[in-house]
Amino acid sequence: MKALRRLLPPPRTALTSQVRRCSGTDSDSGEARLEELLKTRFPTASAVRVQDISGGCGSMYEVWVESSDFQGLSRVKQHRLITEALAEQIKDMHGLRISTSVPES
């Protein structure tokens, strides 16, 4: 039983308290800043959406971009364009989820 306890992750209470501590930050401003950067980089995008999925900390975001700029590119290249557009901001993030698509004709 002791060997099993060493293999298990620590209790989630530490994570919960971290989320609770940082939930007072203004995640809307971080979302708006990232959305503006993406709209500037992809001016013909038909949809750009950014959501803070870190519980309000601004440490993890999910972005959705639909743009004709992605036409003919692999998903990896599409995502690379997003990460290049947000290169400076990504340095301060824990993670980034990216979804991209090409508008239907």
From TrEMBL:
The lineage of its organism: Eukaryota, Metazoa, Ecdysozoa, Arthropoda, Crustacea. Belongs to the BolA/IbaG family. The gene is LOC108678233. It comes from the Eukaryota. InterPro entries: BolA (IPR002634), BolA-like_sf (IPR036065), Mt_Fe-S_assembly_factor (IPR052275). It comes from Hyalella azteca. It holds the Pfam family BolA. This is BolA-like protein 3 isoform X3. One of its GO terms (cellular component) is mitochondrial matrix.
